[in-house]
Design goal:
Elements: H1 6-18, H2 21-25, H3 40-70, H4 74-87, H5 92-108, E1 111-114, E2 122-127, E3 132-144, E4 172-177, H6 181-186, E5 194-195, E6 199-203, E7 208-214, E8 221-231
Antiparallel strand pairs: 1-8, 2-7, 3-6, 3-8, 4-5, 4-7
């Protein structure tokens, strides 16, 4: 089977299209372009040739996508599918295949993490901006809070370990922080934690390291087990 790359294939299509009207109307600077009158037989021949090129491209690309899938190169197969989608955005078959392939990519990179209940932020793995991130959490736990408080409320000496107000109490939450510890401490604008819950799937909004934590007050005693299946992060 003859192998092609998306760039070469799309480039060939563009080159074929440019040999038509644009080439016919090309002229030297300062001269008025003249359009050749349409020749019905010649136009029909060109349209037939364009259809042959389109079918050949689709056939070769489809075969190449399957070949990449067969050897486990799902990312490269996805790139080719995305090229096909740009040529035919309304193709439902391509849309369905892209969704299926994205799920297979996430499944292939999935790994299991046992969450440290009641502990501080737990590093999970490096993520890249724009790349899909999927987290699925199962299990349950019991919480017993042992916190000394005054009329002014519970102490808040370390906000990083306190409750996050916009995340549900007791829920699993995540944050993507800078990979370098010194950079994390010196950054003026700290990243905003987000709710993970039992399932989270969304592209990473920045490069960095994914951290997970249960949204419980510091000093809380938690018994039980929560297991996270993480896809789209590179284990440290």
């Amino acid at each position: 089977m003859r192998r092609i790359t998306p760039c070469l294939a799309i480039g060939a299509l563009l080159a074929a299209s440019l040999t038509g009207p644009l080439a016919a109307t090309a002229s030297q600077p300062g001269t008025k372009a003249r359009q050749r009158p349409a020749n019905p037989p010649e136009l029909k021949r060109l349209e037939a040739r364009a259809e042959e090129v389109r079918e050949s491209f689709l056939r070769d690309t489809t075969n190449l996508i399957k070949s990449f899938e067969d050897v486990g190169q799902y990312d490269r197969a996805k790139l080719l599918l995305e090229a096909l989608q740009k040529l035919d955005p309304q193709n439902d078959v391509v849309k369905t295949k892209l969704t299926d392939l994205s799920d297979r990519i996430l499944d292939a990179s999935e790994f299991e993490v046992n969450l440290d209940l009641g502990k501080s932020w737990q590093p999970i793995g490096a993520v890249e901006k724009g790349k899909p991130l999927r987290i699925r959490v199962s299990g349950d736990y019991k919480l017993v809070a042992n916190i000394e408080a005054s009329p002014d409320g519970a102490p808040s000496a370390n906000p990083a370990e306190d409750l996050i107000p916009h995340v549900p109490f007791g829920a699993v939450m995540g944050v993507i922080a800078a990979a370098d510890a010194a950079e994390r401490q010196s950054t003026d604008k700290q990243p905003r934690p987000f709710t993970v819950g039992s399932q989270y799937e969304k592209p990473a909004d920045r490069d960095g390291v994914l951290f997970l934590k249960v949204n419980v007050p510091p000093g809380a005693k938690c018994t039980g087990k929560l297991t996270a299946l993480v896809s789209g992060a590179m284990k440290p």
